Predict the 3D structure of the following.
Amino acid sequence: MKLNKNLVLIGMMGSGKSSIGKILSKKLEFEFIDTDSKIEEIEKKTISEIFKKNGEKYFRNIEEVISLKSLKLNNKVIALGGGGYINPTIRKYTLKKCISVWLDWKNETLISRVKNSNKRPLAMKMDNLELQTLIIKRSTMYNLSDYKINCDKLNKKQIVEKIINLYENS
Ligand code: S3P
């Protein structure tokens, strides 16, 4: 089988990495890996439960192990957790071996999507200003990815088409 580079989706919580990733994986006929789902499967707990019972540091350690293991494969579409790409080891590996795409949205769009989501323990503790500060801080890291898509004016189909185009021509 031809070995193709992984296509890695990065971006904030609520940027659509999982839903876009699933569509991409069908189109490219690649397996889809959502690192958060893998962590939940292995730990037999939800992300919220892991944060609550074991703390963020514990979560970040597993996130690094699972993300690196996934990134080392080929022919996968991978959705990293919103904080995954902030980890320098994960980021370096992604940049070296994979094609990465940042799903970028206006701050207000992201904030309205993640606020009050009990699936997102990190966002739950933050007010709008704190979330905005986090988005701005992380954007400098996300901006290091191979490609950036401004998603606000696009529908899902257009986002997917753009990504496939970028991937196939890279
Ligand atoms: C996090 C994002 C979440 C999940 C965890 C921490 C973050 O993933 O990994 O709650 O630090 O941004 P999604 O981006 O898939 O929501």
Notes: Residues 13, 17, 36, 47, 81-83, 120-122 surround shikimate-3-phosphate (CB under 6 Å). The radius of gyration is 15 Å. The mean pLDDT is 96. The first helix runs from residue 17 to 28.
